[in-house]
């Protein structure tokens, strides 16, 4: 995992880039193929933040509320095209990940998106924010 984690002797921990790219690949695959399962990437202490149409930031903080929020957004109707994934080591073995790309819906309109994740490996990597 990240450099702050101790790997067993003779084993090299994966870099933040490897962890970040693997996480993003799995997250977006599940988000679009089985959105009802994406809440499994979150933990009790996670926060799901996104701007509403009004521009006001919405913060969702329980696993049930995060699941309901994600399902209400209809991501299963979109296809994600990831253009960049930038990951770096962070505090206590965590990984910061910045994702940019496009979401394309049934109307074939491309919508730019940016997602910032902080993942930690205390119990396997999960989205904190």
Short description:
By secondary structure, this protein is α+β, with helices and mostly antiparallel strands. The protein is built from 2 helices and 6 strands; from the N terminus they run H-E-E-H-E-E-E-E.
The number of strands is: 6
* Percentage of residues assigned to helices: 10-25%
Give the number of helices: 2
**Rg on CA atoms, Å:** 15 Å
Beta percentage is 25-35%
CATH class: Alpha Beta
Indicate how many domains the architecture comprises. 1
Q: Structural class, please?
A: alpha+beta
Under CATH, the topology can be stated as Nuclear Transport Factor 2, Chain: A
CATH architecture descriptor name: Roll
Query: What general form does the structure show?
Result: globular
Mean pLDDT: 86
Q: Low-confidence runs (pLDDT<50, min 5 residues)?
A: none
Order of helices and strands: HEEHEEEE
> Ends: how far apart?
19 Å
Biggest sheet, spatial arrangement of strands: 3-4-5-6
Keywords: RNA-binding, Transferase
Domain NTF2: 19-129
Protein name: Nucleotide-diphospho-sugar transferases superfamily protein
InterPro entries: NTF2-like_dom_sf, NTF2_dom, Nuclear_transport_factor_2_euk, Ras_GTPase_bind_prot
What does the model show?
- It is built from two helices and six strands; from the N terminus they run αββαββββ.
- The chain is of the alpha+beta class and 129 residues long.
- It has a single domain (16-127), classed as Nuclear Transport Factor 2, Chain: A (Roll).
- β3 and β4 form a beta hairpin.
- The model has no long low-confidence stretch (mean pLDDT 86).
- This is Nucleotide-diphospho-sugar transferases superfamily protein.
- It comes from Hibiscus syriacus (Rose of Sharon).
- One of its GO terms (molecular function) is transferase activity.
């Amino acid at each position: 995992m990240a450099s702050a984690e101790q790997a067993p002797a003779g084993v090299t921990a994966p870099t933040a880039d490897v962890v970040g790219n693997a996480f993003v690949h799995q997250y977006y695959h599940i988000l679009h193929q089985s959105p009802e399962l994406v809440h499994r990437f979150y933990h009790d202490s996670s926060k799901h933040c996104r701007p509403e149409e009004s521009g006001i930031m919405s913060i969702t903080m329980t696993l049930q509320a995060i699941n309901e929020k994600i399902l209400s957004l209809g991501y299963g109707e979109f296809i994600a095209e990831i253009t960049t994934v930038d990951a770096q080591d962070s505090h206590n073995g965590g990984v910061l990940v910045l994702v940019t790309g496009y979401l394309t819906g049934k109307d074939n309109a491309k919508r730019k998106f940016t997602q910032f994740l902080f993942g930690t490996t205390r119990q396997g990597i999960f989205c904190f924010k």
